[in-house]
Amino acid sequence: MAPKKLPEPSVAGVPTPQQLAAKLRLLEIRTLQSRAAFLFHESPINIEQRIDVQTQVRNDSSQIVAMIRFVLSGELKDGPGEQDFGVEATFGLTYQVDDPRALNHAFAQQFAQQGALFQIWPYWREFVHSASIRAGLPPLNVPAITPLVLQSIQFVAASPVKAPAPEPKPKKNSGKRGGQKR
Predict the structure, then answer these.
(1) Of 35, 115, 155, 168, whose CB has the highest number of CB atoms within 10 Å?
(2) Residues 2, 93: contact at Cβ < 8 Å?
(3) What 3-state DSSP class applies to 36?
(4) Taking a C-beta distance cutoff of 8 angstroms, is the pair 130, 40 a contact?
(5) Contact 160/109 with Cβ under 8 angstroms?
(6) What are the pLDDT digits (tens) for 136-156?
(7) How much is the pTM?
(8) What's the CA gap between 125 and 152, in Å, rounded?
């Protein structure tokens, strides 16, 4: 199965997704959550990797946020069939958008599954490698990302993330303490 290609424009003068992606500037990368659990002391055999990609479009600040959650789990060859290890991490990538035509969820999701994934992959590889070494195990090595690796990735179906509602403004205190009448 070939990797999904971004759709080409159907109207003359409409930029391609690749042209729109060139209008994005990476502002920050954050580790939002991470966890590692190893219940063995030898190299695992059966390893499964899943990736959940969610996006958020911030029209007010012309930004796209990609949240990419990696889950690597596995069991030993002769294990009881239960999960013997699990490594997971969620990264947030924020992009400034210079072309407002890129501010839509369809483009953001496509870009996150390809462009953002390529940018965050080295961070994921390093996290898995260092987590296994810190657990006193032989290093688990996630392969470098290539189009062939991208084909084998099992993406979890994701929906766009809604922007959080603004926090309510605190009510002004009328000068009375503790909300009690005097």
Answers:
(1) 115
(2) no
(3) strand
(4) no
(5) yes
(6) 877 888 888 887 777 777 676
(7) 0.71
(8) 16
